[in-house]
Amino acid sequence: MSRQSAPSRARAAPVAVGLSREAILAAALAEIDGKGLAAFSLRGLARSLGVNASVIVWHVGNRDAVVAEVIALVLQDSVPPRIPGQPWQDWLRSLFTRFRDAVRRHPNTAPLIGADAVSNLRPDLALVEAVLSVLAEAGVPEERLCETYNAIQAALVGFVTQELARMPTEDLASWQAGIQANLARADAARYPHLVRLLPRLANRAFILRWQNGASAPMDSSFEIFVNCIIAGLEASLPAPARD
User: Fold this and answer.
1) I want to staple 35 with a disulfide (CB 3.0 to 4.6 A). Which of 39, 153, 186, 243 is the partner?
2) How far apart are CA 41 and CA 43, in angstroms?
């Protein structure tokens, strides 16, 4: 789109009375919440708003831009405030919890989180700055801040997007029944640990589930996961200098 002066740009805009950027994004999130990601399109969103798709493009951008802004909306309150004197471990634990809670409120957006983090259409600079400052405070050496930040970002996104992975949209009941039947037929001679632990694993372990975290949350697994991340970071820090 060519650059125009504000007056000429306003005259060229396909105006919809009372429609704002915020209203479009709220409607887009509601569409994804209600119908799922696969069914989301700019044309469908435009129909629900009673406008032409060009109005959405004018206010926000193309589908990728709308999706990036929706993810920013979902995650807008996920970065916890810094509390004076708060241990860095507690802040990181709060970040993981708030991030997961935000996505769990809109589980259909989970498949978008990882892709949005890579696309950088709407990078969350406040999140990056907050994580870097906490890692520096924890004692991560300057030359390892980038790699350690990457590890935290991957962990932050990875568990939640896998926990809330998209379910099949066609013949869900048959798919779920098939998983349960396959697990029931598992050969104890070939998979002794799996079969012995199956009552604890079935529908509660990755790969062995027929529901995602929207219906069957993995709270205890998440707690162990976050504890492992923090313990691993603690173990990676340089030993304090001795007098």
Assistant:
1) 39
2) 5
Q: What is the pTM of this model?
A: 0.86
Q: Can you read off the two tokens belonging to residue 13?
A: 């805009």
Whether the Cβ atoms of residue 11 and residue 140 lie closer than 8 Å to each other: no
Query: What was the pLDDT predicted at 120?
Result: 65
- Who has greater pLDDT, 119 or 53? 53
Mean pLDDT of 167-196: 94
Of 115, 226, 211, nearest in space to 163 by CA: 211
Residue 224, Cβ density class (10 Å: 0-12 exposed, 13-18 middle, ≥19 buried): exposed
What is 147-197 written as a DSSP string? HHHHHHHHHHHHHHHHHTPPPPSSSHHHHHHHHHHHHHT--TTT-HHHHHH
Q: How far is CA 49 from CA 20, 40, 42, 56, 62, in A?
A: 11, 13, 10, 10, 16
Residue whose C-alpha is closest to residue 214's, from 170, 172, 157, 161: 161
* pLDDT 10s digits, 148-171: 999 999 999 999 999 998 888 889
CA 73 to chain centre: 11
